[in-house]
Write a structure and sequence with these properties.
single chain, alpha+beta, RNA-binding
Length: 639
RNA sequence: GCCCUUGUAGCUCAGCUGGUAGAGCAAUUGAUUUGUAAUCAAUAGGUCCGCGGUUCGAAUCCGUGCGGGGGCACCA
């Protein structure tokens, strides 16, 4: 006589054991039709699971995240089924639902081609049309392993071994085809719907370990309705339009080339943007008490050995041998250099906290497969700083950094920031007691910031724990940018010390911090966030002056000069094209402000402006224009 | 680094089963002097990523190297 409690608190009684489907039927006809899976006392179950005892039940449909996940999970099973039918001998690994879709990892000699994906998709649709019934069986552990060994499904055998001892080993059937799976699954393949699309084939290591065999992973996207699928595909298309590599080329900001993979050739406009950001940050950091320095790019191997980089980070370092056979390394980080600056002269506790900053260009030999436009490069400029302080200053300094980061992100249009706290990694330098101390003070700062945070276990730097600042962009993507890292190791290794109040020598704590992280990467993110339409104050070319005809060229030149004198970038378009052409041309180039000069403007010593994405015309007297836009030519927090 | 995929004019791309390249835009020149998203015409422009091979003949087929893209691993 199970008594079922529903999410709204209602209770239903049944005379004997009951399935989820029967409960759904009792609730409503539409739920009966739409039900996919359910949870019984919080545990996800198949709808045909027999409920014997009192419990609370929630039925999920495609509208619930749990239901959508179940659809994706079912879809990937059907994909595996189609693959094994079409390509006999293909072995299975794992096939989970993921964000926006699903994948399945296969082991097969021959590669899958894009053409194969189409065939698989067609077969999947046939299977769904057949509306094959789903059935769950519990198999005995050893029998399962023997069964899969006999089939040569070695990954399934491994998976059985990974199932905790007290869990059942369940096998799901879709018609005749079956797969080892935890479930739950939908009642039949017909409930999946056909709102999916196989998107790509990719290599993936078994269990995510590069020492293992590489499997073939087929990715797909799956949704509850045609509209959701279309929306998703449209979202992908939108994101592609914002791709900074595409916009960087179109807007003539930078390029890459074979001779130096992963290094940026900045063009005039891209570099202007770069410099604007640096100048902006210089001013902010100056107010926040930072001292800017500059340290060498090439440093003796001995220093890197002493700092621990040679051993822990050597694989990623560029090295260089000089004609006198000395070995130097091109810096992958600025920290050792900054400690050398700190070490000059005797430091007292009164000097702390000492905040040393540098727009330092670093080189890191990244694996070729990791390179990605501006977002992952081999040579980049860090807005780096190292704060030398005492242990009891750690928390407040971390908070200062946090506030500075939030202000800067906000100025650049990012209001949504979350924190990630990462603690000690497996490969590290320093005693565990030191790590205990560092982690405790940093975590205190994280909590004091009152921002939302998550914990990244074992993801810290080799010399200390860190906070990462993650910002969310205009289309909802997260980017990790800034970071603060507590370091109780490096200063000691490189003999940094200060004289404390009591006259004794102490080793300072060093905080590593970056605001944008990498200027290159941050510009990539900015381009994508704004889809290339930068706010006026950072736009690399802020105005283009367009004379209506040859007669007004002189006036246009005069206006452009005045604008440049006011500190706003400007050029005159003297090409032999009509106004319409030029407006189109510069609008596509995403120039924020077009300035039109014709007879009317010359006569009244004025300009007519047209803002990007607006067709309104605003006429104003030249001087008031200059005054107005000079005032706007600043970061929001400085206006 | 690994798997798949890809590399043709400044850009975006076409070029079927092998017969030494083509369009649009951009550029240049000329005409036009234009009031808010493409004026017309002419001209010029290519080691078809590099190297090697198969072939009478290779942009096209094969091998290899380099670069790009999508993933995996990596992201100190």
């Amino acid at each position: 006589m199970p008594k079922i409690t529903l999410p709204d608190g209602k209770k239903l009684s049944f005379p004997k054991e009951v399935t989820g489907l029967e409960i759904a039927e009792k609730i409503s006809k539409s739920l009966f039709k739409q039900a996919l899976i359910m949870s019984v006392d919080g545990e996800l179950k198949d709808l045909y699971f027999q409920i014997k005892d009192d419990c609370s039940v929630k039925i999920f449909t495609a509208k619930d995240p749990e239901g959508l996940d179940a659809i994706r999970h079912d879809t990937t099973h059907i994909m595996a089924m189609a693959v094994q039918e079409l390509f006999p001998g293909t072995k299975l690994a794992i096939g989970p639902a993921i964000k926006d879709g699903f994948y399945y990892d296969f082991s097969r000699e021959e590669p899958f081609t894009p053409n194969d994906l189409e065939k698989i998709e067609i077969r999947m649709k046939e299977i769904i049309e057949k509306d094959e019934k789903t059935r769950r069986e519990v198999w005995e552990r050893e029998k399962t392993k023997k069964h899969y060994s006999a089939l040569g499904e070695k990954y399934k055998v491994e998976l059985v071994d990974m199932i905790p001892e007290d869990n059942e080993v369940s096998i799901y059937y879709h018609g005749e085809w079956y797969d080892l799976c935890r479930g739950p699954h939908l009642l039949s393949t017909g409930r999946i719907g056909k709102y999916f699309k196989l998107t790509k084939v990719a290599g993936a290591y078994w269990r995510g370990d590069s020492k293992n065999e590489m499997l073939q992973r087929i990715y797909g996207t799956g949704w509850a309705s045609q509209k959701d699928l279309d929306d998703y595909l449209k979202r992908i298309e939108e994101a592609e339009k914002r791709d900074h590599r595409k916009l960087g080329k179109e807007m003539d900001l930078f390029h890459f080339r074979e001779e130096s993979p992963g290094s940026v050739f900045w063009h005039e406009k891209g570099w202007a943007l770069f410099q604007k950001l640096i100048n902006y940050m210089r001013a902010k950091q100056d107010l926040a008490g930072y001292k800017e320095v500059n340290t060498p790019e090439v440093l003796d191997r001995l220093l890197w050995e002493k700092s621990g980089h040679w051993e822990k980070y050597g694989e990623n370092m560029y090295t260089s041998e000089t004609p006198d056979e000395k070995v130097f390394a091109i810096k992958p980080m600025n920290c050792p250099g900054h400690i050398q600056v700190f070490n000059q002269g005797l430091k007292s506790y009164r000097d702390l906290p000492l905040r040393i900053t540098e727009f330092g260009k670093v080189h890191r030999y990244e694996p070729s497969g990791a390179l990605h436009g501006l977002l992952r490069v081999r040579a980049f400029t860090q807005d780096d700083a190292h704060i030398f302080c005492s242990e009891d200053q750690i928390t407040s300094e971390c908070l200062n950094v946090t506030n500075l980061i939030l202000e800067i992100y906000k100025d650049l249009g990012f209001e949504n920031v979350i924190l990630k706290y990462a603690d000690r990694p497996a490969v590290r330098v320093g005693e565990d007691e030191i790590w205990d101390k560092a982690e405790a003070s940093l975590l205190k700062a994280v909590k004091a910031s009152k921002l939302e945070y998550s914990i990244n276990k074992g993801e810290g730097a080799f010399y200390g724990p860190k906070i990462e600042f993650v910002l969310r962009d205009a289309i909802g993507r997260d980017w990790q940018c800034g970071t603060v890292q507590v370091d109780l190791n490096l200063p000691g290794r490189l003999d940094a010390s200060y004289v404390d109040k009591d006259g004794t020598k102490k080793v300072p704590v060093m905080l590593h911090r970056a605001l944008f992280g990498s200027l290159e990467r941050f510009i990539g993110i900015l381009i994508e966030n704004y889809a290339g339409k930068f706010p006026f104050w950072i736009s690399p070319l802020q105005t283009v002056v367009i004379p209506i005809s040859e007669d007004f060229e002189e006036y246009a030149k005069k206006v452009s000069t005045k604008i440049r004198e006011a500190g706003i970038t400007s050029m005159v378009d003297l090409k032999n094209h009509n106004l319409n052409y030029k407006i189109r041309d510069h609008s596509l180039a995403k120039i924020p402000l077009l300035i039109i000069c014709g007879k009317k403007e010359v006569d009244s010593n004025s300009v007519t402006i047209r803002r990007l994405d607006s067709n309104k015309q605003e006429n104003m007297e030249l001087n008031s224009f200059l005054k107005k836009f000079s005032a706007l030519n600043k970061a929001p927090s400085n206006i």
